[in-house]
Amino acid sequence: MQERSRRPEFRDSWAEDEHDKELDERAPLTREQVLALREQYPLLSPWRVVAVQAAVGLVVAVLATVITGRWAVGWSALYGAAAVVVPGALMVRGLARTKDMHPGTMVFGFMFWEFIKIGVAAAMLVAAAVVVPDLSWPALLVAMVLCMKVNWLALLWQGRARARKKRS
Q1: What Cα–Cα distance (Å) separates residue 66 from each residue in 61, 92, 134, 139, 146?
Q2: CB distance 71 to 65 below 8 Å
């Protein structure tokens, strides 16, 4: 009977503990510390990502035309790139307006512009068969996938830039 009383006491994870007290005791960052952090971790411009997506789309379209010898394949690839770049640019433009708003408004703005981006991309894909004569779906989809992968490359570039700054 006495063994039952030796059970560990229930601890509420939401209750205030030592970790919360440590966080409260930390001083806010100074202006110099904030500037040092910004220099150490520079932000990557979303416009640069959109520009690189457009460049990748152009390269894919030219390569598709040269490899196949058909203009229709190149136009299809170019339209596929546009189906990624145009909605992405629209979203970046919309989010630039919400930059200085309340955090809750910014979250709503992000979700709103992401919804708009998906809608525009879907509408462009539906219109592809009408807009692009002799459409090549494989070329369109390959260009889209390659343009979308630029987002991952942007994260890699940002990581390498940080690593170079640390070595210097």
Answers
A1: 9, 32, 17, 13, 18
A2: yes
Name the pTM for this structure. Answer: 0.71
Spatial distance between the Cα atoms of 25 and 21, rounded to a whole number of angstroms: 6
- Our measurement of the distance from residue 57's CA atom to the centroid of its chain's CA atoms, rounded to an integer in Å, reads 17
Which pair of structure tokens corresponds to residue 158?
């940002």
pLDDT of residue 25: 65
d(CA 51, CA 67): 24
pLDDT, residue 32, reads 87
- Condensed to tens digits (0 to 9), the pLDDT of residues 10-35 reads 666 665 555 555 555 677 888 888 88
Cβ atoms of 79 and 103 closer than 8 Å: no
Q: At what angle do helices 71-97 and 137-148 cross, to 10 degrees?
A: 40
Q: Report the half-sphere exposure of 4 (CA within 13 A, side-chain side).
A: 1
Q: Which residues contact 46 (CB under 8 A, 6 or more apart)?
A: 92, 95
Q: Which two tokens stand for residue 98?
A: 């919400």
CA 164 to chain centre: 23
